[in-house]
Structures
1.
Amino acid sequence: SAFGIRGLIKGGWPIVVDYEQQVPGRVQLRIAVPGADIVTYRLDQFGLGRHVLRFELPEFLGSSLKPAVVALTAADDQLQVETLEGFKVYGVGIGPRAVGSVAVDQLEFSPGTLLAEQGDTAGYAFNSRSDFDNAAVEFMRVSQSPDGVRTRYVNGKRIDGGVERGRWIGSDASQRWNGHDERDRVSRGRHQLQVRVWDNGGDWVGAWSDSLVTVR
């Protein structure tokens, strides 16, 4: 199982992860920056259950912002497979505004089933704990592969003006998703809500809904 997101980082910044591990296995947080050693944290040492963990990025990553790939991976070493049953990632945040707890939470995405050809739509909502200059909601198709769950972007939209601390963001009638991809084709299958917020200073958060919407 692997969940990855691209974003800016720099040495000394805090990173927070919100995830759930239901069965024993190897769970890692990995930060890959071009030209630097991969930074790896073993998360399974913290036991089973849902965890919100904070770490400080090492100073050798440098004092300037640089692009990175941040990934959480889970594997079952006993079965020798690169997937772990029931492993979920709820959020990742980097930067002073993004941490404490993950600064975007309480994601909602419903209904569970959407009949696109009958004109059904799905609504979403989330809470922001900090101010961010930019925000986007994205709809990701979820599929199963031999190495775990995969997600693929199918559609999304920017939120004008970003988000403010303590603001509850909900989709009004004009913002609801109709189950179509960017080419206006019905995207059949299971879908997850992904929310990304980022500050012009580099802080950012990625968060994912626990609930799924199946488009038929």
Note: The longest strand covers residues 134-145.
2.
Amino acid sequence: MMTACTDELPTQNYGEGEGRLVLSEVEVKAVVGDVITRASLESDILPKASDFTIEIINNEGSLVKTLEPGTLQCTLSAGTYILKATYGNIETMSTTPAFYGESNVTIAEGGVTTTSITTNLQQAVIHPRISEELIVHFKEYSLTIQQPEGSAVEMPNDRDFFIPGNGSYTLTLSGINQLGENFSYDWQYENLAVRTRYTVECNPDLPSFTMPEQPEGNVWSKFVYITPMTADNMTSHQDIADKVLNNIVYEASSDGITWIPSEIKDGKVIITKLEANTKYTLRSRFGAVCSNNTFEITTESAQQVENGDMESTSTSISMNLYGARGIMYCYHFTGWDTRNEVTTNGAEEVNITNTNAVQWKYCSNTKPINENNSQMAEISTLAFYNGSCGSTIWDTEDGWLKKSILNEVKNNGTVYTGILFTGTFNKSSNTPNLGILHHDRPMSFSFDYSYTPVDGDKCLVYAQILDVNNNPIAQTENFQSEEQSFTRKTLKFIYSDKGSKAYKIIIYFQSGTDTDVSKMRIDDGSGPSPRSTSRVVGSVLKIDNVTLNYDYE
């Protein structure tokens, strides 16, 4: 770098034997060696010609005159001199560089002698560099350099710092990290070459890590289990790796802006409060340092069981009851099945003239009823007469006597418990085929119910989740309740396999297990003779508002 000192010289008379010295320029050589390549110092820290102090030395080695900064010309006795240009202090460690150069000059009597000086950097250059990714891990930090017998001098980050080229140095990065812990790291340097820049990457504990594979089975509808990192996923020193692993956060985001952090529940790392059927990005993070990789997931759909409110029904059999007492139906609940096709089997072929069209011989165990301004399923244990409805139970004044009906059914009847379930009923084998397709994993299911049992009976309610091989991966308790007014009940799924995906769901309601006909009563039905709407009834279970719950519980 060339720096001029003057453009015009004043005309003046000199004393006898004198001439004038004019320093026309001071060249500052800003090129320094680098570990990799040559580089230049930043221009804003380089001195101008007017910043130098010029010492004038005669032939005997004596100082003749000193030109303070800003003075670039003077009168001198005719003769030969050495000019020494100095800027900065070679022995001082600072952000100010020290330059020095000299040249020979001869002053002629009565004349003007113009000359220049070339200067060079007289120090080594340390350039510390702390990455922004590391700085965010610090609550506070300082960077210092120190010689063995000297005091520590603070250094700025990512700037050239000038030090003498001899001796030994310790560069120290210290402070308090985001965990509230004190830290200190040292780098040792000695015998540094002048005019050489040493770049120090001050990243001793900047962790680098990857998030391990996240199995598909970890992803549920409203949350995701996280397979946590281990030391194998880290490239840091062991002590740093332990700190990172103890303070790592796993996060999910659907937009890349708002990140939902993980938490520990039941000893598991989990991210909750997710939306169903939504794409998320998963990452791990320590402070401002994120994992080198991410994972894309889509949450399950939080599918509800169809017709959980029991509002959708249809009929497949209709039969006029004897005595114009109405119509008997085989009821079907959309999305569910029952035993109704068995307990109404043969009703379509009944011969009305033989007085067989009665509900105590053909009737739906499970039917819709309206109660509390809501349609629900009534699931009943019923007894059905096996014989023909003839004169043995006929009274000329009262038609079929309810006492006689009850006795005949008890002596010659078949009892069926009422059921409502997800699946299909095999009429030929009189057994349910349990389960319907369902690909989401709930945490529990809830339902409203009331129960009126015969003495000692209990209803039966349970649910299961099956995998693609029809193996159970979750089930609830077998809930058995005694007499109960209308209330809401929740049964939690206990998962034996949290990694497998769901394929089917079974939800099962049964009116009870007691089929002792002697405990059963006759339900009068509507009106007196003929009592074609009467039923022989055991335990009765009413069900409504079946819902699956997907939030983490």
Note: The two ends are 73 Å apart (CA to CA).
3.
Amino acid sequence: MRIDRERLEQSIEELGRIGETPRGGLTRLALTDEDKRARDRMIAWMREAGLRVTVDRMGNIFGERPGGEPLPPVMMGSHVDSVPTGGKYDGQLGVLCGLEVIRAMNDHGVRTRHPVTLVIFTNEEGARVQPAMIASGV
């Protein structure tokens, strides 16, 4: 099974334009308009991939692809917030690679025993709200 490299690159470029800085990085601080736009874009892509999307009280986003059995989920993901003038690949690459794995499984008709869950943690960087990673620790 192979991922769709072109689709992944397009997703990276599209998400990377949200909060883009003139030098190619991005500023997408947690809980700002830019962060919300990125999170909304991710939710739309997750739903397009057939995931059941939920958001917990800390704002963490979970997209679940059902498994064939009632087993604990296999989870993957990261964050989409950044530090000021952060790197375009930090955080969002983990989220987008996880999404692409799920898309590829869908494309190839892969069934899993365990549910597969993609998670996007809120405020991982802690650049705007302290402490960092508070939402992933709850």
Note: The chain has one domain: 5-137.
